[in-house]
Each structure stands twice: as C-alpha cells, then as structure tokens.
C-alpha cells in the first residue's frame, strides 16, 4: 500500500523536478572516504565546486563518508537498498567484493574516442593491476599510495653510519638496525633500529617483503593464494627474526597509527609506512630525514594501496556519462597535481608529474619522487574474492607468527588451507 | 565481615575502578596537554586548551551536538509514549491474540538491529526520508525492550489502585496517567538513561542513513578524526572525544545517585 502511495508521490515529485530544471541537468552523488589527516575532504569539495562552475548542467553532491571501512559499508548498504551513488571512491582491493555483489559497471563502455583511450592508458600499470580483471576496467586510480622507508639522518650519524645512505638490502637493514638499536644502563631499549608496523592490516607491508623475495600472495584473478609458498614463508621468517634474532625491532604487534610518532620522538631510527604520510613527516619530524624505496632482497618490490573510483549500477545513462566525465576531469594532470600536493598520495598518471606545478614541487621537495620511482617495481595489493575474509585469514596468521604462538610455516600453512576453503567456490 | 576483609574488598574495588578509569584519565591528560606530552607524563607539563580549539575547528561540532540532542530527546520521548501505551495494553487488557502479539514484541529483542540495516534502508528510501534526522530515529522508536520493561513494571502495580481510580470515575487513559506512570518513574528514568546513552553512542545506522552535516550526529562527526593512515593525533582526537562524551558524563555525575537507585529498582542489570 505504502509502495503505491509513494510511487505516486515520487512520480509527481520527479515530474515537478523535470519541469523546474533545465533540460540537461544531471545530479550525481559522490561518496568518498578520507584516510589521511588534514584537509583532504576540503580539497575534494573545492575540486567538485570547481568542476560544477565549469559545468553548470551537472550537480555533484560530494558526501564525505568517513574511513574506507565506513565508506564501503555505506556504499554497499545504499546500493542494496536501491539507492546507489553514481560515483564512489573505495579501496582498490574492494573490486572483487563489488563485482561479486554485482554493484559496479566497467568503464570500458564510456571509453570510445581515441582521447578517452589515451586517458585510460595513461595510468601507471602498477595501479591498473588492481583495477582491471577479465580485460575490463572496473576502477580508476585516484588516491593511491605505496609504502616507503623513512630514515632519521641524525640517528644514522650518531650511530656512525653514513646519514645519506639508506639500507639497500634486507641484510643491510638488519645490520644497520643493530648499530642503530640503543639500550640504556638498565638494558631497556631507548631507540629501535627499524619499525615495520604489524597492527590492523599487517598483510600490506608484509606483501612488500614477499615481493622483494620474488614471491606472490595471490593470482590476478583473485581465486588462488600462495600463502605457504617458500618465498612467503621466508619473508615471514625475516620479519619475525627482526625482533627475535636480530633484536632491531620492538617485539610483538607494532602499532600502525603510533608509528610516525615513534619516528618523530626518536624511538625508532627507520620506519616503513605509506607515502601518504610524507606531508605529515615533513611537517613534524624535528630532524633531517630521508625517504627511500623499500630495501630489496632477490629483487625490488612493494605493494600499491589506496582507493579507486567506481561507477555504480542503477543510474541513468546521462548520469553515468556525466560521472565518467567528472572522473576524467579530476584525474587530469592539473587537478591530480593539486590532490597529490595536498595529501602526499602518488599521482597515478605520468602526465601529472610533467606539469610545471608538480615539477616545481618535486624540485623543492625531492622525496616525493621516491614513491613514483618505486612504482615500476610495485605489484597489486592483495585482492581476492571475499577479500575481507581472505586478508583476515592472512592477518591472523601473521599475528600468530609475530607473537610467537605459531611458527611461520605452521601459521602460513593453516592460513593457506583456510583461504582454499573460502576461495574454492570461485575456481 | 572482619576489618581485614573490608580493606581487601575496598582495595579490589579501587583497583577495578582505577583500571576502568585509566583510558579516561589518559584522554583527559592528552586533551589538556600539547601533543609532545602524549607519552610523557611530566607533572609540570604545560596545560593547554589548544587541542579543543583544533578539534572544534576541524568539524562543525556545534551542529553535530544539536543533531544528537534533537535525536536522543526525540527518540526517548517517542519511545516513552509508544512503549507506555503498548505496555499498558499488554499489562492490563485482555484481547484476542495478546500473547502472540506480546511474543512478537519479545522476538524483537532477539534480532540484532544491524541485521536489518538493508531492509530498514529500503523502507526509509521508499518514504523519501534518507538524510533526515527522522530516518535516524524511526527504526528505534517502537522498542520491544521498552514495551517489555514498562509492562513488567505495570504488572507489579496493585490492582486495588487501578480499581480505586476507576471508582473515582477515571477512564483507562486517566488511570494510566495518574496511577501507572507515576509509579513507574524509576523504570522510566532507568530506561531513559539506557536509551539516551545508546543513541548518543550509536554509529552504524546514522553513518549509513545520513549524508550531510545538517543530519549527522556527533559519533559520525567524530569519525572525521579516526584516520589512522597518517598516524594518530591523540591529543586532538581525545579532545574531540571528551567534548562529545562530556554531556553524558556530566549528566551521570550530577544524577549519579538517582541513576543507581532507579537501576536497582527497575532491575536492569
């Protein structure tokens, strides 16, 4: 009963709207998360305002939806409830989840002209790995990051190391770490050598170690994991040994959120964290610091991370083409440069780095280039079907090995079995 | 109880209280000191209100507070009216299907509200109420818990009082208003407290159904600061946390005695 009543009311309202507005008016809802501090939400709002100024026939409603986790919850609930946004930014690794729920559309249908194709081909391949599957593009890289190593030059100097040479290999990092670890008269450590945070989402930085060791956590189709392969086990051994054998890292689970702070206060001489922290470190580190690529073992390697634009089902063709047009605009070099400078995210297209604005910024602050240069070695972040469950399995295994409840072999073998049980349905 | 026993009990209670209050003390410490003293507990550290200023600037907390205030008073008032009427019906009137209806009401206690989020969202959307304060409140107004609690209290009211009121010429509604409601005051106070603190702290549903500053309650507003990607600014987060929980804390401290008593009388544990 209510249904018919409200359908009637809705039709009336829609009619009123159609007659009240100019013919081509399009409304877009745009959900976005913010995962870095500062004014990132304001930057997005000023960018959408700028777009609407140039395109008076399009009205975009940017809705700040909290953290990534909050945003994906909100997006999925709204979409299942029949009210999807047209555009949303969500983690690139949520692609399979959104696909399994049949909520998103590929961008390929809107990429017709040669200029469009050039735009789509203009992203760094490392970022597209998490955005394409089965030959279709489901996500457009936007707020993307990669982990890098930050080091405290003053601490290096004090330990008798060259302040301008970061560790290049795993062995280097452990050896330098031993020199950098300082204890007081009571045997308490006052400064650790290195800090690789393992709380919350340990798989991300761990994936860097795996890639450096020539291994892989999952296949590109998201149906198979390789948690118990020798490369992965060896990488976990290295991570565990940093605390237990080399004694250069605080034992136990190391908190992610407190890591920059520990670095600023001299509790650790090196840290691994996202390049999204660059602006934060630049503002708050009371000493001279350096930024380097993650140290290599068999090869260089690092995961990518962060969020993509997605396009949602259930909207009119006019809305969708307006949405794609907006995404093209906001990922164009000038806008993208603004976004990168405001946040520290890696600009996802080489063209952005060629703009005068970006060149000037890089000249003034060269560490921004490290993350970009690392991209050629970067691999897709772990993403599978039922991604949240599978990454949780791996996270639990890593935590068990780090806290010493299980050996790395046992922990990863168990994890592989559990992941197989979840993923067998998708093979 | 020997003297020694009493000391032991007091020490134990003190220890538990200390454990319970530590996070709060830490929040107070960080909120009133500059960020440099987050992990450095020097008693002579300079005091500052700057963190509160920063937190207040970072989000429109004034508006969020107003939203939350309207929300919790609205929900609690509506719950009182609906639950009182329903509870009265179940407690004092015989009608066909009463027991089945009442067990349906009780069934609501077994269902986690989070499970219904998508269905609730569909209904709210059909009503065109997405992004309104009313939408945040609507799913919670007909509270099974409230009906149950108030009904149990009404059942304990002696029939004689009811009869006496009727002899004096009072109709059912007047009897409810003059006899039952005054006698159930402790229950209302206890239930009101539970309801207010629940809805003050509720996060998931308001997050999903609200899109703008004009409708968001403080909890959703507070999540602005919960951005761990670039490291946590504990001093500012804790200043914001204190601000958002202060009204509840102050209310509890003021009415502490009444709250505890009414909890004991109403039997909510």
The CATH superfamily of the largest domain in chain A bears the name: Periplasmic binding protein-like II
What top-tier CATH class of the largest domain in chain A fits best?
A: Alpha Beta
Taking the alpha carbons of the first and last residues of chain A, their distance comes to 44 Å
Radius of gyration of chain B, CA atoms, in whole angstroms: 23 Å
Mean pLDDT of chain A: 88
* Name of the top-level CATH class of the largest domain in chain B: Mainly Alpha
Helical segment count of chain A: 19
Tell me the number of strands of chain A. 15
Into which percent range does the helicity of residues of chain A fall?
A: 40-55%
Largest interface: A-B, 43 and 28 residues
Reading the helices and strands of chain B in chain order gives HHHHHHHHHHHHHH
What does this structure look like?
The complex is a heterodimer of chains A (427) and B (269). Chain A is α/β, with parallel strands linked by helices. The two termini of chain A are 44 Å apart. In chain A, 49% of the residues are buried. Chain A has helices spanning 2-20, 40-54, 68-80, 95-100, 114-121, 125-128, 153-158, 170-180, 203-212, 230-244, 259-264, 278-284, 317-330, 333-343, 350-353, 356-364, 368-374, 387-402, 408-423, and strands spanning 26-32, 58-64, 87-91, 104-105, 132-133, 136-137, 140-145, 147-152, 182-183, 189-195, 268-274, 289-292, 302-303, 305-312, 378-379. Chain A has 19 helices and 15 strands. Chain B folds into 2 domains: 1-48, no CATH class; 52-266, MetI-like fold (Orthogonal Bundle). In chain B, helix 10 packs across helix 14 (256-266). The mean pLDDT of chain B is 86. Classes of the chains: A alpha/beta (427), B mainly alpha (269). Chain A binds chain B through residues 2-3, 6, 9-10, 13, 29, 34-38, 41, 61, 63-67, 70, 73-74, 77-78, 80-83, 200, 256-261, 265, 273-274, 276-277, 279-280, 344, and chain B through 38-39, 117-118, 121-122, 124-128, 130, 204, 207-208, 211-212, 220, 223-224, 226-233.
């Amino acid at each position: 009963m209510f249904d018919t009543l409200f359908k009637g009311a809705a039709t009336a309202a829609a009619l009123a709207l159609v007659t009240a507005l100019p013919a081509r008016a399009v409304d877009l809802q745009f959900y976005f998360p913010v995962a870095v501090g500062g004014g990132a939400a304001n930057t997005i709002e000023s960018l959408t305002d700028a777009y609407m100024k140039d395109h008076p026939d399009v009205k975009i409603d940017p809705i700040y939806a909290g953290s990534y986790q909050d945003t994906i919850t909100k997006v999925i609930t709204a979409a299942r409830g029949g009210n999807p946004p047209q555009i949303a930014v969500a983690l690139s690794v949520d692609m399979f989840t959104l696909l399994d729920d049949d909520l998103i559309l590929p961008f390929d249908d809107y990429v017709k002209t040669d200029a469009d194709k050039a735009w789509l081909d203009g992203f760094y391949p490392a970022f597209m790995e998490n955005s394409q599957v089965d030959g279709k593009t489901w996500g457009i890289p936007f707020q993307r990051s990669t982990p890098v190593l930050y080091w405290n030059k003053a601490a290096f100097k004090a330990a008798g190391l060259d302040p301008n040479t970061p560790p290049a290999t795993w062995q280097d990092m452990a050896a330098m770490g031993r020199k950098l670890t300082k204890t007081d008269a009571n045997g308490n450590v006052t400064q650790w050598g290195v800090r690789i945070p393992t709380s919350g989402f340990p798989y991300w930085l761990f994936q860097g170690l795996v890639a450096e060791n020539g291994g892989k956590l999952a296949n590109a189709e998201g149906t198979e994991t390789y948690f118990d392969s020798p490369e992965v086990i060896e990488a976990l051994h290295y991570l565990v040994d940093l605390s237990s054998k080399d004694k250069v890292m605080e034992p136990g689970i190391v908190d992610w959120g407190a890591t920059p702070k520990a670095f600023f206060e001299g509790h650790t001489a090196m840290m691994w964290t996202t390049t999204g922290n660059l602006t934060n470190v630049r503002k708050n580190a009371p000493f001279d610091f350096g930024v380097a690529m993650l140290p290599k073992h068999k090869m260089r390697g690092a995961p990518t991370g962060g969020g993509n634009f997605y396009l949602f089902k259930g909207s009119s063709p006019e809305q969708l083409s307006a949405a794609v047009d907006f995404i093209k605009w906001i990922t164009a070099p000038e806008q993208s440069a603004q976004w990168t400078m405001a946040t520290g995210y890696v600009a996802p297209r080489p063209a952005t780095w060629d703009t005068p604005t970006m060149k000037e910024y890089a000249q003034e602050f060269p560490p921004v280039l490290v993350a970009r240069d690392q991209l050629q070695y970067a691999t897709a972040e772990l993403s599978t079907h039922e991604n949240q469950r599978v990454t949780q399995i791996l996270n639990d295994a890593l935590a068990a090995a780090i806290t010493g409840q299980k050996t790395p072999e046992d922990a990863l073998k168990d994890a592989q079995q559990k992941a197989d049980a979840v993923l067998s349905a998708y093979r | 109880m020997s003297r020694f026993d009493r000391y032991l009990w007091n020490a134990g209670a003190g220890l538990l209280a200390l454990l319970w209050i530590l996070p709060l003390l830490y929040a107070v410490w960080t909120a009133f000191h500059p960020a440099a003293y987050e992990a450095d507990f020097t008693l002579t550290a300079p005091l500052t209100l700057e963190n509160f200023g920063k937190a207040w600037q970072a989000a429109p907390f004034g508006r969020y507070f107003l939203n939350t205030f309207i929300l919790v008073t609205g929900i609690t008032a509506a719950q009182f009216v609906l639950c009182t009427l329903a509870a009265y019906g179940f407690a004092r009137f015989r009608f066909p299907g009463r027991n089945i209806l009442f067990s349906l009401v009780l069934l609501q206690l077994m269902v986690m509200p989070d499970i219904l989020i998508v269905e609730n969202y569909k209904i709210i959307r059909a009503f065109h109420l997405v992004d309104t304060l009313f939408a945040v409140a609507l799913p919670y107004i007909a509270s099974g818990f409230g009906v149950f609690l108030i009904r149990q209290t009404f059942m304990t009211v002696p029939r004689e009082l009811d009869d006496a009121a009727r002899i004096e010429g009072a109709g059912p509604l007047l009897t409810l208003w003059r006899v039952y409601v005054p006698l159930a005051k402790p229950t209302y106070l206890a239930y009101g407290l539970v309801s207010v603190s629940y809805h003050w702290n509720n996060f998931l549903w308001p997050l999903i159904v609200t899109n703008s500053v004009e409708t968001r309650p403080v909890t959703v507003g507070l999540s602005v600061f919960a951005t761990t990607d670039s490291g946590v600014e504990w001093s500012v987060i804790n200043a914001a946390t204190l601000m958002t929980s202060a009204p509840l804390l102050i209310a509890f401290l003021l009415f502490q005695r009444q709250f505890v008593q009414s909890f004991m009388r109403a039997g909510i544990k």
